[in-house]
Amino acid sequence: MSTTIKRREWLKLSALASGAGFGILNGIDVFGRTSPKVLSHVQGDEDVRRLLFNENPLGPSKKVTQIIQELLPRSSKYATFHSYDFMALKELIAKQEGLNPENVLLSHGSFESLIMISSHFGANGGEIIVPSPSFDVVGNFGRKIGANVRPIEVDEQFRLNLSAMESAVTSKTKLVTICNPNNPTGTSCSPQSLRSFCSSVTDKAHVLVDEAYIHYLNSWRNHTMAPLIKEGKNVLITRTFSKVYGMAGLRIGYLLGPAEFVQSMEGKYTLGFPGNMPNSLSVAAAIESLNDDRFIAKSRAFNEKSKLAFYQSLNELDIPFVKSDANFVFYDVQKFNEYKSLMWKHKILLTGGWPSKPNWARVTMGSDDDMQFLVEKMRGKKWL
Ligand SMILES: Cc1ncc(COP(=O)(O)O)c(C=O)c1O
User: Fold this and answer.
1) How confident is the model at residue 138 (pLDDT cuts 50, 70, 90)?
2) Rounded Cα distance, 224 and 52, in Å
């Protein structure tokens, strides 16, 4: 088990979970945001099984922990060293993507980039088209600032409905967002269809592709839309070190986009030195991670194995599910609130109940022990 809380706090948390209404589910609202109330509870000294944030149960890698230990004494300094410099990270990312450092904006997780994008396009009632259900930071933040957010439901196979999204574009549309693979459904778009979608929609609006889970796809480089930036398309990509790299707590991610756009984001939302420079340990950890293909392969293989075992259990329990290209699985429990309450009673934190898929749960692939415990508690379907 990865996280602990105090018994008294646990009872409060369980009460919170069972009383959760439409907007807040398991302390996570329907768009995946966690309430500070829950975060304040997920600490302490009693075990919970934390299968709701899509964190990597293997991470961080040894290389990451080693470099952090080595550089810890240097953390009184900004991340401006010859090695492990924030510019070195930008250069490395750019090199690996066939782009220039001017195409890269580093941020506090990918979340910060997503908020900047939402602020930029959603200002003054800007029209933004988003998929639903999805991990919709851009739409959710956009609503806060008065953007006109238009959700387009996934298709019957739980895939992003690209043709419906394209048809929804109007002369007022500023941005269309894609999450690939999509959270929470776990589906991904075929590279050909997404490429042609991006090529045609970018004539009318910017397209953002959130690639938080892209590394879980085999041959993920065939799936990324980053090459379209080089072709001059108005495509924006967000990536994170929080998932396959196992560094969620280090809070580092980045935006890729046309140089002019990236520079305008920097100009608009950051201010000189140290600007939005991430912390020096995260920068060093990210550099190590980008040179550690083995850890990605190991995480991917572990995740594949967990998913196959979980699919088998779901089949045995006769529970419909969607095959996932990410590190979580979406499945139909019929009575989500009852299921959630039962799982939370067993201290298994998971989420679900998106408005258009109220009966569906989403669970992160955790450690073997966590997954076996989860399946054990699902046997007998006591929530139905
Ligand atoms: C699709 C997607 N994008 C972005 C994020 C934000 O992650 P971070 O801010 O840790 O990079 C998440 C987090 O779960 C996510 O699921």
Assistant:
1) very high
2) 25
**Does the beta carbon of 54 lie inside 6 Å of ligand 1?**
yes
pLDDT tens-digit readout, 246-282: 999 999 999 999 999 999 999 999 888 888 888 999 9
- 62-290: which CATH topology? Aspartate Aminotransferase; domain 2 (3.40.640)
| 206 pLDDT above the threshold of 70 | yes
Rounded Cα distance between 238 and 104, Å, is: 10
Does the Cβ of 136 fall within 6 Å of ligand 1?
A: no
Question: Which numbered atom of ligand 1 lies nearest the CA of 252?
Answer: 11
Going from the Cα of 384 to the center of ligand 1, the distance in angstroms, rounded, reads 32
Do the two domains 3-50+294-378 and 62-290 of this chain adopt the same fold? no
CATH of domain 3-50+294-378: 3.90.1150.10
CA distances from 228 to 20, 97, 157, 276 (A): 42, 11, 27, 26
